[in-house]
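batch_manifest entry 22 of 60
target: HORMA domain-containing protein
source organism: Aspergillus sydowii CBS 593.65
requested by: lab member K.T.
priority: normal
notes from requester: please return tokens only, no post-processing; we will run our own comparison against the previous entry in this batch. if the run fails, retry once and flag.
--- input ---
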Amino acid sequence: MTTFSAPVTAPRSPHNQAALAASFTNFLTVSVHQILFLRSVYPRATFLPVRAYNYPVRQSRHPKVCDYINDASIAVGTEILKGTITAVSIIISSLRTNQPLERYAFDLSGFPRVPPGEVHTTFEDRMDDATVGVPTAQTVDLEAQFRACLARLASACARLTPLPRDDEFSFTVCIEVREDALPPAGTTTEEQTWIVAEPGKVHLRSCSAPYSVSKLRNGEPQQPPPRVSNGRAKTVPVRRVEAGELRLELWVEEARQKFNEPVDSEHPP
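--- output ---
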């Protein structure tokens, strides 16, 4: 069975763009598994207790779920290295209505943009003459940052309105690209894992890029990407992470239509 690619310990801060992409995609993998468990998208008995970043989390035991998450994370990492991505979203939708209920948004607009030929060049070596000699920020423990973010994520999920008990759910991984970048063209294996969503289908609080793409399942889109209403009913901030050049913000959005569904109580543990 596929296990977490996240290491037991994380570097204090990424030293180049390749390390930054690897650090984030590892964290994204852990986060998606944890979100699926916390929100009971699949039965909780199908998750294993594991540890990542010295923090107790859960991982799905289903091989296809693991493969989908790993493939999506790899594809996200590819877009980070290309400098095209500005946000990643995990969208939980109702199977009955195909309506989105919750979105877990990772704002990556603070990530640096590095030419493809310099992804292995250290950030320090890429500093221009104007920044040489400027004191750098104190080294940050990235593992502690990710651990705190996972703890805040669990706390935020506990405060969300429960998902409807009489429904089943699916999830989709979406990315949003920068305004001056083109969406994945499908010329590589990683790019072929994405489909382009219609403009305006996915809206993020701090991103205005015209394109969003969602991850395919087994090479075929199961349903059209769900439309998320502009009239969001609730936004729950989770945490900002800053470790050197790795700067991201995570929050949760609950769609308006979620509050139109009958809700009794949260799924049992």
